[in-house]
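Consider a typical record:
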Amino acid sequence: MIMAKASRNFLEAFFIDISYIIYYCTHRHITQKEQDMSKNKETSELKGVCHFYAEEGSEGGLWAFQDKNFIEKPSTKFPRGEWSYDGLRILSSGDHLTVFDPEHANLIIWQGIVSLEIYPLFTETVDDVWIHSEQIGTPRKVWAKWFFDQYPAILVKGPKIKLTQ
């Protein structure tokens, strides 16, 4: 009897939690910017900058892209502009990336399909920074410079491809 009551209480709590989550997800206020960006989010051409993404606990960094629509103008609090996680795209093999010279906006310095060789944690570095992967066929230091220095770029997310190990 006690076990049946405990199971019933657990199930009631579970369904209340699930109901709340479903309600929140379906009734959450969506901003106009989110609506505009979600229309062709992963199939359209995104303009922004290359970015080396690392946070505490990531044990290194990932090659990423920050959509310019999610970079607010510089301010005294954020001299380089405030970046939203909504604009962060971690690069994957199969993505199409075009990198531009920061001094000459129309000069393409690299264009192609991202093809990452994946490494185990704490095995590879560039400029004393741990990395989890590198672009096959591009010198590591050259690739890293574009991301460390946030070169302008265009990204078209590609199909999911099995990563090289």
In short: The chain is about 25% helix and 25% strand. The mean pLDDT is 80.
